[in-house]
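Appendix B, example 12.
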Amino acid sequence: MRTAVAILFLAFQVAMIVYARFDPGRYFCWAPHDSQNEYHIRVSIDDVELDTTETTRRYRIPAEGIDPRAIEHVIRLVRQYERSYGSDENAVVDIDYRTNGSAVKHWRWPEQ
């Protein structure tokens, strides 16, 4: 019985590592903090742009900063907020980010 539990436990770990290789959030990777992501979040509600303090309060993360995890963590926080609490506010969110010093990329809500 112990052997079966140990095999199931190891199989689960291997499955999560394989899954993480294809998931942008990289939750179960060996090195989930393997990148530096500089980002800047801009939010407009009814054509009025929120300042950095309001944006920080809205998402409970800095409106601009560096995140050592995959940028998908920041995007998922914003997406989750806009799908739930902010769903009736018609917000337009722009995130500009740079991973490990590469070219600047862009993400926008609402998603196309």
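The longest strand covers residues 37-45. The chain has two domains: 1-32, 33-112.
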